[in-house]
Amino acid sequence: MPTVTIDYQLCRGAKECGECYHNCPMEVFAVEGDKVVVAQEELCTGCGVCEDLCPTKAIKVKFE
Question: Residues 29, 43, 58, CA angle at the centre, nearest 5°?
Fold first, then answer.
C-alpha cells in the first residue's frame, strides 16, 4: 500500500495551487482551510499523478 506525504514547507496550499487535490483520480486529498491534506490514503493506488503535477515537488508517494 502506498504512503503519501506532503512537505508543508514546500506546499503552496489549496488557494494558490491545489493541483493534487483537483487532479487525484482516487480523491485521496481534501482541503482544510487553505491546507491540502491526505484524507483517504487507503484509496491511493500509487499512480503518481499528484507527484507529477506538484510544481514544488512537495508530494511523495512511497511503497513500503
Answer: 40
